[in-house]
Amino acid sequence: MVARTATLHSLDELIAAEERAFVDRQPRSGALHARAVRSLAGGVTSNWQISRPQPVFLERGEGSRIWDVDGNEYVDLHGGYGAGLAGHAHPAVVEAVRRQVARGTHFAQPNEDAVAVAENLARRFGLPTWRFMNSGTEATMDAVHLMRAATGRDLMVKIEGGYHGHHDSVQVSVMPEADEVGPAGRPHSVPSSSGVPSAISALTLVAPFNDLDSLAAILDEHAGEVAGLILEPIMMNAGIIHPDPGYLAGVKELLHAHGALLTFDEVKTGLTVGPGGVTALSGVEPDLVCLAKAIGGGLIAAAVGGSAELMEDVADGTYEMVGTFNGNPLSMAATRAMLEQVATPDAYARLATLAGRVREELSSTIAAHGLTAHVVSAGAKGCVTFSPAPVRDYRDFLELDDRFNHLHFLVQHNGGVFLPPWGKTEQWLISVQHDEADMDRFLANFERFAAGVAAAA
Ligand SMILES: Cc1ncc(COP(=O)(O)O)c(C=O)c1O
After folding, report:
1. Which of 94, 153, 273, 324 has the fewest CB atoms below 10 angstroms from its CB?
2. Cα-to-centroid distance, 163 and ligand 1 (Å)
3. What is the CA radius of gyration of the chain?
4. Dihedral pair phi/psi, residue 71, rounded to 5°
5. Which tens digits make up the pLDDT trace of 306-344?
6. Taking each helix axis from N to C terminus, what angle separates 11-24 and 436-456, rounded to the nearest 10 degrees?
7. Which position among 74, 81, 163, 319 bears the catalytic label?
């Protein structure tokens, strides 16, 4: 790593040097991007693929590894923004898809796999009744609609710094700037995207994470008007932020006392923190759970699970939960394989061993180099947070210097490990196909990063 040389002194210089190396390693990605900008908006297929110093065009993936169009091989800890718990081309998923693709990929009628998937999710998450859709955004949109339909109320509460997809009701205070956020105990509702009518954003109230008093005040102020609250029970779009002991149970109690409902958005946490998500880990059962990303084993799948009473509003058409590709046979075949053959107790035991080793060795490296940082993890997910103290909410997260994570991303990338390119917001995912050799490479890169940062300080 360039950072080890004593001639480079500042973080910015280290970043500039790693960015040059990054671009030099990827001439074909650079050329493809230059071509792509003429026909694809921004040269990418989602705005979050626009990353510094340039997007990486990938060619293929197998097991725990991916290859870019320049032939560089990486240990994949990006995991497609946390969807890749199965790793790439997992034999069970490949077989399920191969079988189904030859038998027809779309009917818009229910099939047996859908029933098996619903039954499996009911066992894992404890919620009896399920429906399927195609993205996390659709899942949280349906959950928000259903909470409103069931209560006959318009107001929603979400957590400051929480991301739940790109529909109107949740595009509020996702990543607000310090000069927009308002008082800590009563955050402003800050629109997070253009194109969302202010009349709709105004229906979403914002509470700080880990703060029951603030939630109680909001519910009192709007007594009888709040349909429900949606939250990530472990926040995973602001690094990783764990709930304080008792917080989730307290949220549920407050909401129910006000006749309002609770949705856990487990799109990211879902199968990645454990077999039944935070729902099973915490023992706090919400009214609705949203799943997506990892459940499809790399294919396109999402789900909403709910209490029998609430899902009866779906069954009887009080709320029309619909979609042409919902429960699509290809997705259901892959999801069934994921649940029955990939996300198994053995796989979770192996993941725990790898994740435990990573946590311990990163912590030792941090201590050895005197970095102001700590490791936060949850099951197969983890991140390094560059602060001395645990981050408890979005306001703490705002204080973090993004440059450390960006440099870490670059050093890992140039060293053959692909992390998500989004600095302090994102975290790694270990898949069921990763092994000790993958972790060796990751840890060795981190050692070089830590030595570089310590030398530059
Ligand atoms: C917690 C959470 N909810 C919902 C979504 C939206 O999912 P999708 O991108 O599949 O629409 C995301 C995406 O990152 C997410 O992290």
Report:
1. 324
2. 7
3. 22
4. 90, 5
5. 999 999 999 999 999 999 999 999 999 999 999 999 999
6. 140
7. 163
Helix or strand (DSSP H, E) at 382 = strand 381-385
- As given in the structure block, the two tokens for residue 311 are 């899902």
Rounded (5°) CA angle 45-40-193: 60
Q: Is 293 a catalytic residue?
A: yes
The C-alpha atoms of residue 254 and residue 308 are separated, in whole angstroms, by 21
pLDDT, residue 9, reads 61
Q: Is the CB of 135 under 6 A from ligand 1?
A: yes
Active-site residue, 158 included:
no
- Which residues are CB-neighbours of 184 under 8 A, at least 6 positions away? 208, 395
Which residues are within 8 A (CB) of 48 and not within 5 positions of it... i.e. 6 or more apart?
81, 422
CB 243 within 8 A of CB 233: yes
Q: Where are the alpha helices (DSSP H) in 152-241?
A: 198-201, 212-221
Task: Report whether the peptide linkage leading into residue 53 is cis, meaning its omega lies within 30 degrees of zero.
Answer: yes
Tell me the CB-side half-sphere exposure of residue 355, using CA atoms within 13 A.
Answer: 25
